[in-house]
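hey so i finally got around to running the thing on that chain from the lab meeting. sorry it took forever, my laptop kept dying and i had to restart like 3 times. anyway pasting the input first so we r on the same page abt which one it is
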Amino acid sequence: MIHRNNCVFCNNLITEVIYKQSDFPITFGGEKTIVPYESINLEWGSCKSCNIIQLLTLVEPIELYKNTHNSTCHSLTWIEHHNSLYNFINTQITTQSILEIGAEGGMLACKFKEHYKYSILNIFEEKNKIPDVTYIQYNCEDYDYAGVESIILSHVFEHLYNPRKFVESISKSKVQNIFISVPNLKNCLAKNMVSFIHNEHTYYFEESHIIKLFELYNYRLNNKQYYKEHSIFFSFSYVEPSNTIDILTQYFINRESKISSIILDKPTYIMPGGHYGSVIYYYLKNKEYILGFLDNDKTKQGTYMYGTNLLTYNINHIKDLTDICVLLHAGPYTNEIIHQLKDINANIDIKIF
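ok and heres what got predicted. didnt touch it at all, straight out
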């Protein structure tokens, strides 16, 4: 038995058991003869952080899936499901190769293998192999996805014991496209279905949980589609993360260097006041040339800029002044203010940075 201690989505410690099922059979697999069955005490826990209900006592996957017990892929519902999922994927995929995990029945493989390099990853060896498809026997939760371009999981994601670890793994390998189809568990709950979370579907989730988990590891949601009330399709693409810490650190350094290098040689006003003016004044080396601040905001006019002994003036204050400079940086408003300054006094020297 495997014991789950941390939440599958937020990774916080789970401390509360909300429901128990004693002496429950470890698998749904069929046997050719009556045999003594192995059982497990199922304990369902609740994550206090993200409110996910999940199974805490897990059966070893090799035991859980040793006998095929869900060969329904050729039913009408599943045929329609795979046709819809194929169309959903085929209009969005951006790579030439695909790895499908699970691939029960091989229905998607038969459709895609004509146009893509197709591989199937499964925990057990496939007995009925499809021509022109590469088969890999491995536990998908421990697999190294280096070099994999696109992944499909059709009603497999909900079987993962550690979906967070799985998404983190594919993100580290920068897998470009991820397509998943999952059961609509919210609809199952609303309809009071007798079994939709169990030994194999070991946690409850809704759409927001899936999207948030993938976003956490640099995957952007491209599209989402419902297949009846049965399934939800998701398409995600990997987005290269930006190193915000390094970018902002360099921003601060560049800002200081740029402003402190400004050389003033005549009486100068800073425009505008407020946060722009305050930062400019802070970094200037020769502050003795600064006469005050200019601003169109009437609430600032006639007040002292905090941290200085300088007043903020209406822009018309410079109308008749000569041999002065206006030090200007107003972000998206810079061009607007340049025209305004020139209309008031065409002779002023405007320094823009």
